[in-house]
Structures are given as C-alpha cells and as structure tokens.
Amino acid sequence: MPKYWMITNRNAEDSGLGNDRTEELSFYTAERGALTNLKTWTRRTAAEFRAALIADVEKFPVFPETEHERQKHVTVFVHGYNNVWEEAAARYKQITDDLYSGPTGLGICVLFTWPSNGKTAQYLADRVDARASGPALAKIFNTLFEHAMLMQQKAADGSMQCKAKVSVIAHSMGNWVLQNALYYTWERNNKPLLVSLINQCVMVAADVDNDLFSAGEMVSTGRAEGIANLCYRITALYSGRDSVLGVSAGLKHFGKRRLGRSGLEDDPTPPDNVWDFDCSSLFPANERNIHSAYFFTAKTQRVMRAVLQGHDRLIIEREFAT
Question: Where are the domains of the chain?
C-alpha cells in the first residue's frame, strides 16, 4: 500500500524531475525510502493512481457527524518557490511523517510539485511558472470536484457515507499556483456557489497580496473567487518575522503587502470563511528560517493539525494565545 503520493507537471530526467513544465501530468507512488531519489518512486498511469487512492480512502473509518474532527483527509500539498524537486519531496515526506502517519495521522497527503527553479534570483521566473502551473493543478481539482459530486449524491440517497475530507496545504508561492488553479476549476464548473470542494485550505506564509479577498461577501470576477467559493474555510498563517516575504514584497513594487507577512487586509472585511492567525510568537526567538519553520516547529504543527481537523477558530486562538 503506498504511503507517499506525487503528481507533477515537471519534466522527468535521468537524475530526477527537472525544472521545465510539461503539458501532461505524471503520477507516482512510493511505500518507503528516500523520496529525493526518483528510483524510489513507481510511476503510475492516471487511472492506476486514482484507483489506488480511492482504494486506500475506502479503508478509512466512518465517524458520526458529531465527531467530524476525527474524520480522515486527502490533502494536496503545494510547495513554494525556490524549491528543486528534491527539496519539495523532502518537505513533503516530513509533513506526511509528522502529520499524516501513525494512529493519530490525518489520512493521506499528496504532493503536487511544480517546476520551481530552485534559485532565489529566479523569483520572477518562478512566478511565471507558478501561474502557468495553475491549469495543471486545476485538472486535479476538476477530477476531485467530479468525484465529490458523485459521492455527495450517494451520501444523499443513503447508499454511501462520507469517509474523507479534501484539504489543501499551500506554502509561499504555492498559494499563487492554488489561486489560479481554483479559479480555473470554479470557471469550468459554472462558478458553483455553496459547494465546498475543499474542507480546509491552509495558506502557509502565502506569497500573495494581502487584499486577495477584498471583494468581501460579494461575488466578483477576481481570481480569489475560486478559493473563496470552493473552500469551506480558509486559514492564512502569517508572521511579521518572515524575512523571505519581505524580499518578495520589495520585488513586486505593486504597493501591496504579502498575506503571509502581514495577514489579511482589514478593510473591507474578508468573507466570513476566511481568517488569519499570527504565528510569530510560536517560533523560537532565535529561529532564522521563519518562512519554512511552520512545518518543523511543534507549536505551528499543532495549529495546522487543529485547523485541518476543523476546530473552531476561537478555540484555536484561545489555545495558542500564550
């Protein structure tokens, strides 16, 4: 049974996955081993990958609605910029091992790795790749949307019970990939309202404008509409100590702060299903790599787990207030 799952629009090379985009998606699974070595992975067809994933989800336990926090997840993890695929695979393995494995594991995590160039100096080139990778990730969400609609129909007629929630963790510029992907999915499916494809969307150190949700409760033509309308709840984890996003803001020159550094813009009020959480006090005082520390700091790992499990935002804020 696979433990690790990967979907990519990177080109395949003898030494691993490259930094060029491909038109077609590639699918891989692995049971164990060094995920930074492509030989550890087994390449699958799209049909094989989907069948294996559905088979694993079928093994998830069923919980009553009053215990929805215990329900398992199928989570898509989208990494940020300045990541060669080996770095993305290593981060993904750490997230899977820490949050999705063992008796208290959250379920299944799937890596979507896009062709980030792996160099800080190529920030703008990565930004182009991130936007261009939106349609590739949208293909995954389109398939999930179709499957979710089918499962909702079966749940409504009583022939099947829901066993898994769909969630997303996006890091840094991976949120720009996600923003574009969900916009395409929203458009393709005739802009469905009141349909939650994604239960919990966790935007970690998001390298996007902090006025992303400035339309508030109104439906607009902006690219944030896909995220706002296809996600049940969106949580932006941010820290003013994130020096990487300070550089990002300087490169853009658009007069807007980064969501992952400053939190949501207060005026106008964002949609009710969108909130932010300042993680600055959760990191050690001497932590230098705040931009990535969310994933290996025990306290922020606990925040992410609580968010994904669907605990109320006020409960999360009170628990971590100190």
Answer: 60-319
Is 266:274 a contact under the CB 8 Å cutoff? no
Predicted TM-score (pTM) above 0.85? yes
* Sign, Cα dihedral of 297, 127, 233, 96: negative
Q: Which residue has the tokens 């840094």?
A: 172
Given a cut of 70, the residues of the chain with pLDDT beneath it are 117-127, 149, 151-161, 190, 193-195, 215-223, 248-255, 322
Q: Are 277 and 317 in contact (CB under 8 A)?
A: yes
- DSSP string computed for 57-105: HTTSPP--GGGGGG-EEEEEEE--SS--HHHHHHHHHHHHHHHSSSTT-
Query: Can you identify the CATH homologous superfamily of domain 60-319?
Result: Alpha/Beta hydrolase fold, catalytic domain (3.40.50.1820)
Instruction: Give CA–CA dist 220/241, Å, rounded.
Output: 32
| Cα separations in angstroms, 59 against 3, 108, 162 | 13, 11, 12
Phi then psi dihedrals of residue 304, to 5 deg: -60, -40
Q: So what's the pLDDT on residue 127?
A: 66
Q: Which residues are CB-neighbours of 262 under 8 A, at least 6 positions away? A: 210, 238, 240
Is residue 23 classed as helix, strand or coil in its secondary structure? Answer: strand
Asked if the bond preceding 268 is cis, omega within 30° of 0, the reply is yes
Task: Give phi and psi for 10, each to the nearest 5.
Answer: -85, 155
**Whose CA is closest to 84, among 8, 32, 31?**
8
- Nearest Cα to 210, choosing from 248, 184, 181, 182? 248
Q: What per-residue confidence (pLDDT) applies to 254?
A: 56
**Helix, strand and coil in the chain, % to nearest 5:** 40, 20, 35
